[in-house]
Inverse folding.
């Protein structure tokens, strides 16, 4: 995608999930950005479950359901994210509710979620997700 173009909220199918152990090989994602993130995760062999739904509570104690885009089988340390995360939420546009939802998810289910925007997905596409370029260039001691 060229600089200046945006990722549109167009539902997009991605195949290849059987390679990470999911029973359904093809999944439908809510946007092109989310689909691109799935393709990158698959390319790097990172095991995840797409669109996992959790029951949470808001500050007034009302129940709501929150579906996280990618829930990892194991906590991940990914390039551009300063902490281990259990899940990522891909967003083209951020709203204040997004932060409240990930706080509720962490409080109720202890799932640390990071909101990922297009710039980070593009970085992962160019440079990898775990600093692979720096690992490959290291000389043995």
């Amino acid at each position: 995608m060229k600089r200046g173009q945006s990722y549109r909220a167009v539902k997009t199918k991605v195949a290849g999930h059987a390679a990470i152990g999911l029973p359904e090989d093809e999944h439908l994602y809510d946007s092109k950005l989310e689909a691109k993130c799935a393709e990158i995760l698959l390319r790097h062999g990172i095991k995840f479950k797409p669109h996992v739904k959790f029951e949470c509570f808001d500050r007034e104690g009302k129940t709501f359901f929150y579906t996280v885009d990618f829930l990892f089988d194991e906590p991940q340390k990914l390039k551009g994210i300063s902490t281990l995360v259990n899940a990522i939420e891909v967003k083209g546009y951020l709203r204040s509710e997004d932060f409240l939802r990930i706080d509720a998810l962490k409080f109720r289910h202890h799932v640390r979620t990071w909101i990922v925007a297009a710039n980070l997905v593009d970085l992962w596409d160019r440079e990898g997700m775990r600093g692979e370029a720096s690992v490959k260039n290291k000389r043995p001691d």
In short: The two ends are 39 Å apart (CA to CA). The CA atoms of residues 80 and 120 lie 7 Å apart. The beta strands are 12-14, 27-29, 48-57, 63-76, 85-90, 113-116. Confidence is low (pLDDT under 50) at residues 133-141.
